[in-house]
Amino acid sequence: MIVLSKALQRIKPSATVGISQMARKMAGEGRDVIALSAGEPDFDTPDAIKEAGIRAIEGGRTKYTNVDGIVELKRAVAEKFRRDNDLDVQAEDCFVAAGGKQIIFNALLATLNPGDEVIVPTPYWVSYPDIVLLAGAKPVFADCDAKSGFKLTPEILAGSISKNTKWLIINSPSNPTGAAYSRDELKALGEVLLEYPWVHVLSDDIYEQLLYEGKEFFTIAQACPELAPRVLTMNGVSKSHAMTGWRIGYCVGPRPILAAMGKLQAQSTTNPSSISQWAALEALNGNNDFLAEWREVFLRRRNFVVRELNAIEGLDCLMPDGAFYVFPSCSDHFGKTSKGGRPIDNDEDFVMALLAENGVALVHGAAFGMGGHFRLSYAASDNDLKKALSRIREFCQGLR
Ligand code: GLU
User: Which of 113, 342, 360, 396 is the most buried (most CB within 10 A)?
Assistant: First the structure.
C-alpha cells in the first residue's frame, strides 16, 4: 500500500472539478446529463486568440520561457492593470502562471508557515481553504450570509484578524455567489486593514469582466491605494476570454513575494505553456468587443435562472451582481424524500439525488463552506438552462 503524504491528507478533492468529472463520465456512458457544475464560459475562445496560438506553434515558440512569463506578456499585464485598474505597476511587478489557481497556490505556499492564519470569507471558492491547509496554515472563516449580501463587512473583518493573520482573501465578483463589492465597500475594508500592517491581501479578480447592468468593477488596491504595497492582485484570461483550457493566470504583487513564487514555480512547472502565453498576449492587447455581447448573453441567462429558481417552492435565490453563478438556498426541502426514495437531509443529498434522478449536475453549498445552498453555473446554452430548470422544478415537486 502506498502511504500518502501528511500534507495531502489534510485536503479534500476539489468538489467543482470532481462533480464536473462525474457529470462528464455519466454523459460518456450515454446518460442524459446537463452539467451546470463547472465554472467555465461555454463560449469558444475568440478566433484572433486561437490564431495567435497557432502562429506561436508555427513560429517555433515552443520552448521553455522565463519562469514568470515572457517579457511581452508581463508588459501587457502591467498595461492591463494600469489601464483597467489604475494600478501604478511595471512589468517587473507582474508574474504569469498556469492559471489563476497556480498564482494562488504559489503565493500561499511561498509565504505561509504553521500557525499562520488566512481569513477566508464564507462562502468561498472551494480551493482557498485547501491550499491554505496544504501549506500547513489555518483558514479562518468569516461568515458572510445572505443577509449581508454574502459580503464581508468591516466589523466581521476586524473580528477575524489576529496577530497570526497573514492574508485576507477577497474574491469579487464572487464564486460561488456572484456578489461584488463597490468601491466604498472595498475602501471600508481597506481602512480596517490599515490598522493591521502585518496582514496582506490576495484579491482574486478573475471575474472582473463579468459584471452586469452597468455595475462598475473595483479592486481593493485601487479603492485603497495606501494598502497597495501589501496587495497581490490576481487575474487571468480563463473567464474573460473563454480560455480555461489554455491555463494562463497573472498577478501584480510585492516583488519579494513574486521572487518567492518564482522559486517555487521553477521547482514545479517551470513556465506556463509558451503557446498559451502568446495567445494570452493577443487576449490582453487585442480587440475585446466580443465581451459586451457575452455580458448581454450572461445577463439574459442570469435573469432567466433567478426568476425560474424563485418560482420553485422551497428555493430562494438572491440576484447576483456578476460572475456566472447563482447560489440559492434549498434548506426548506431538508427532511423530505425524493421520488427515487433518497432522503434529502442536506445540500449534498439534494444535488446528488438531483443528478442521479433528473440528470442535472450542480455543486452543493457545503463545498463552498455554506450548507443549505447549491451553486448553479449559468454558463450554458439557453436550451440547456431551460431544460435544467424544468428538471429542477420537477425534482423539487417530487419531494415528499
Ligand atoms: N473555478 C471554476 C469553478 O469554480 C473551475 C473549477 C475549479 O478550478 O474549481 O468551477
Answer: 360
Look up residue 94 and give its three cell numbers. 507582474
Instruction: Give, in order, the Cα–Cα distances in Å from 204 to each of 128, 223, 311, 381.
Output: 10, 15, 33, 26
Residues 6+ apart with CB under 8 A from 207: 171, 172, 173, 174, 175, 239, 322, 323, 324
The tens digit of pLDDT for each residue in 124-146 reads 999 999 999 999 999 999 999 88
38 lines ligand 1 (CB under 6 A): yes
Q: How confident is the model at residue 341 (pLDDT cuts 50, 70, 90)?
A: very high
**pLDDT value for 375:** 98
DSSP 8-state symbol, 166? E
- The SS3 assignment for 375 reads strand
> What nine digits make up the cell of 113?
508557515
Q: Are 268 and 103 in contact (CB under 8 A)?
A: no
Cell digits of residue 357: 434522478
**Structure-block grid coordinates of residue 176:** 460561488
209-253 pLDDT, tens digit per residue, is: 999 999 999 999 999 999 999 999 999 999 999 999 999 999 999
Nearest to 167 by CA among 89, 234, 235: 234
Per DSSP, 64 falls in state -
**Nearest protein CA to atom 5 of ligand 1, as residue:** 39
Task: Choose among 382, 376, 390: nearest CA to 326.
Answer: 376
Query: Is any atom of ligand 1 closer than 6 Å to the C-beta of 126?
Result: yes
206 lines ligand 1 (CB under 6 A): no
Report the alpha-carbon distance of residue 104 to residue 202 in Å, rounded. Answer: 8
The C-alpha angle 144, 146, 149, rounded to 5 degrees, equals 75
Cβ(375) to ligand 1 under 6 A? no
Distance from residue 213's CA to the centre of ligand 1 (Å): 24
Residue 148 is predicted with a pLDDT of 92
> Each residue of 260-280: pLDDT tens digit?
999 999 999 999 999 999 999
- The residue type found at 272 is P
Confidence (pLDDT) at 319? 97
